[in-house]
Amino acid sequence: MKLVVGATTDVGRVRDGNEDRFLVEVGLRLFAVADGMGGHRAGEVASTTAVEALRTAIAQGCSLDAAILEANRSVFEKAASDEALSGMGTTLTAIAVGSEHAVVVGHVGDSRAYLMREGELTQITEDHSLVEEMVREGRITPDQALVHPQRSIITRALGIDAEIAVDLYPVELQARDRLLICSDGLTTMIRPADIARILRQQPDPQRAADALADAANAAGGEDNVTAVVIAALPADADADAGLAVVDTAIAPTIVAVTDTTALRRLDPSRVTIDPVQTRAPAPPDSAASAAAAAQSQALRRGRVRSAGTGTFRLLWWLVPIFLIIGVGIGAIWWHARNSYYVGLDHQTVTIYRGVSGGLLGWNPTVARHTSVRASDLTAGQVTDLRDGHPFSSQSSAEAFIQRLQLQTSTTSTSTSSTSTTTTLPLGGLSPSTSTTRAP
Ligand code: MG
Questions:
Q1: CB 230, CB 178: distance < 8 Å
Q2: Three-class SS of residue 202?
Q3: Cα 18 to ligand 1 centre (Å)
Q4: In angstroms, what is the span from residue 376 Cα to ligand 1's centroid?
Q5: How far apart are CA 132 and CA 155, in angstroms?
Q6: pLDDT for res 65
Q7: Are 25 and 58 in contact, with CB atoms under 8 Å apart?
Q8: What is the pLDDT of residue 417?
Q9: 17: helix, strand or coil
Q10: Within the chain, which residue ranges are assigned CATH 3.60.40.10?
Q11: For the whole prediction, is pTM greater than 0.90?
């Protein structure tokens, strides 16, 4: 059997820079995709550092899991040594080819590895992401995850902690299998069914990788997109010139998985081999489902321990969002507490602090009951005060009350003495009681 490889990366339609990196090392029989994160180009540094450290470690004879741990250490130390790179991290999904048919997928983050076998697409890796956890817990559907506002939050990444848990998935390759490693710029833009369709339509790995990136861009290209497609072919199959070809017949055994606790196996009850959708929930009462749930629960607990402060630090970018929300709530609170209005408390004209009707749970409070009664006012004035007559300060509300008091007293004087009165301006109020002229 031989492997034929095609790979592409594209900045997408929205981003300024490309923080994705891929690695196709035919000589080392190593393939990887890393998707970096961090401000001011730190994401590019993180993904580049990770793939270079991975390559170096594999070249020195490390097993895939040890090499990924080495990559984690490299990114972590670089982030700690430079203030400008602080907090950077990266996903890393890598495939190491061992003897003849054995490959191992090593995985941290939300880039993905897929296996296409006999036209059916299987997601090999499990995302270390918030929305994927929500899907597994049945809180959202896979379709909702695709458009969820928190879909880019990952719960595990290289470079965040000194130690990291690496998921390993051994796969026994069959001739005509195809493996895909891709960044989330592909899987958040197009559905697994579309990925499967493109892989079926394009047997050539390079054309398939290019077509996948094109499809992500056609769907909006909101993120950098990277795809590495590895086709397993019979040893005597022809391959186009220019494609990276790995002859597995002369493979040295470079993948020595030592940490069996990190070894993950493809679980048919967890990973749906359905080209139309992935991650359909398992039937509720089956034994397989219970076993998968128990395994998933155990892994989740393990993840909490291993992710630890990493999860916390990964969420650091949520802080500005909370700050904006906090400032918004503060502004509303300030407005609610520094506004006044004159209204009616039963029949008493009253100065209130706050906004008439309340604002986002902040209800108005009585600042002062005045001596003016509703019965002293015209029908128009009463209607106006029922709605609450707003003022920007208590002093302007008090001035309004003074005018109201003066007007009601002069009105009552004029009524009793039938002498001439002057209508006082009542800012915003309907015309005052009519003046009575002496005959
Ligand atoms: Mg991405």
A1: yes
A2: coil
A3: 9
A4: 69
A5: 10
A6: 93
A7: yes
A8: 40
A9: coil
A10: 2-322
A11: no
Gap from CA of 36 to ligand 1 centroid (Å): 7
Range 2-322 has CATH code 3.90.740.10: no
Low-confidence stretches of the chain (pLDDT beneath 70):
100, 239-317, 319, 411-439
Tokens 């300024």 locate to 16
Distance 185 CA to ligand 1 centre (A): 5
Contact 97, 251 (CB under 8 A): yes
Q: Which two three-digit tokens encode residue 239?
A: 């391959």
> What is the whole-number distance in angstroms between the Cα of residue 11 and the centre of ligand 1?
10
Cα-trace Rg, the chain: 34
Report the alpha-carbon distance of residue 76 to residue 81 in Å, rounded: 9
The pLDDT value recorded for residue 134 is 93
pLDDT at 423: 38
Tokens of 129: 């992401």
The pLDDT assigned to 404 comes to 80
Q: Please tell me the number of Cα atoms within 13 Å of 143 on its side-chain side.
A: 3
Contacts made by residues 379-382, CB under 8 angstroms, sequence distance 24+: 380/429, 380/430, 380/431, 381/426, 381/429, 381/430, 381/432, 382/344
**376 DSSP 8-state letter:** G
The residue type of 269 is S
Q: Six-digit token pair at 213?
A: 């990136």
**96 beta partners:** 30, 104
- How many A from CA of 386 to the centre of ligand 1? 56
What pLDDT score was predicted for residue 356? 87
Neighbours of 191 (CB within 10 A): 16
**Strand ranges in 11-82 using DSSP code E only, listed in sequence order:** 20-25, 30-37
By three-state DSSP, how is residue 383 classified?
A: helix
Q: In angstroms, rounded to a whole number, what is the distance separating the alpha carbons of residues 206 and 231?
A: 10
Phi and psi at residue 158, to the nearest 5°: -75, 140
